[in-house]
TrEMBL record:
NCBIfam families: fsa_talC_mipB. Its main location: cytoplasm. The active site is at K83. It catalyses: D-sedoheptulose 7-phosphate + D-glyceraldehyde 3-phosphate = D-erythrose 4-phosphate + beta-D-fructose 6-phosphate. Pathway: Carbohydrate degradation; pentose phosphate pathway; D-glyceraldehyde 3-phosphate and beta-D-fructose 6-phosphate from D-ribose 5-phosphate and D-xylulose 5-phosphate (non-oxidative stage): step 2/3. CDD domains: Transaldolase_FSA. Keywords: Cytoplasm, Pentose shunt, Schiff base, Transferase. One of its GO terms (molecular function) is transaldolase activity. It comes from Sulfitobacter albidus. It is an enzyme of class 2 (transferase). PANTHER family: FRUCTOSE-6-PHOSPHATE ALDOLASE 1-RELATED (PTHR10683:SF40), TRANSALDOLASE (PTHR10683). It is found in: Cytoplasm. This is Probable transaldolase.
Length: 217
């Protein structure tokens, strides 16, 4: 499973990328706001760090304007994935932009039927939002499972990019089900390394090592 990092925080991206944990990046208008940076400038900086797909989201709501914004965002770098909302206009824009050979990430997907439409419109990625479904007492993981089944039934090449990942359990479930990609905030990716038994075991080893009075270096 590929790891995308869901942030516009350049320092966090650089740190995770140096560890080989970043196959791509996703941003959205809320993350751009949080970064306090100009969208074109920060996205360019991210594309200079990461060689995989970097999603940059349009903010227009009408297809022609989405297409114009998407083309402008795509000028930033060759690895831009244009992020479009899963609306009828977003699907129209997806069809045009993917037809031009551009990477498109269709976002804000909350149903398997929406995912089916995005695949038919030529999306490179579909982004089902797990956490936001969980927030309203639905099981986001059921959606990932349904999309996996449907895409496999018909051989769609659109990659399932599990989004709105909030917990380490989400990451594990996505990997088990076979999402192609997951995008998570840096803190969730860091938490994947944590286990209380690792901490406890290390504490014991350190205490016993101190008693040996030995040194390695
Ligand atoms: C994905 O591309 C989105 O930017 C993101 O995963 C949304 O996550 P949230 O629901 O935690 O805001």
């Amino acid at each position: 499973m590929k790891f995308f990092v869901d942030t516009a925080d350049v320092d966090a991206i650089r740190e995770l990328n140096d560890l080989g944990m970043v196959d791509g990046v996703t941003t959205n208008p809320s993350l751009i706001l949080k970064s306090g940076r100009d969208i074109l400038e920060v996205t360019k900086e991210i594309c200079d760090i990461v060689s995989g797909p970097v999603s940059a989201e349009v903010v227009a709501l009408e297809a022609d304007a989405m297409i114009a914004e998407g083309r402008k965002l795509a000028e930033i770098a060759d690895n831009i994935a244009i992020k479009l909302p899963l609306t009828w206009d977003g699907l129209k824009a997806c069809k045009v932009l993917s037809g031009e050979g551009r990477m498109v990430n269709v976002t804000l997907c909350f149903s398997a039927n929406q995912a089916l439409l995005a695949a038919k419109a030529g999306a490179s990625f579909i982004s089902p939002f797990i956490g936001r479904l969980d927030d309203i007492n639905l099981d986001g993981m059921d959606l990932i499972e349904d999309i996996r089944t449907i895409y496999d039934n018909y051989g769609f090449k659109t990659e399932i990019l599990a989004a709105s990942i909030r917990t380490v359990g989400h990451v594990q479930d996505c990997a088990r089900i076979g999402a192609d990609v997951m995008t998570a905030p840096p803190e969730v990716i860091r938490k994947l390394a944590s286990h209380p038994l690792t901490d406890k075991g290390l504490e014991q080893f350190m205490a016993d090592w101190a008693k040996t009075g030995q040194k390695i270096l």
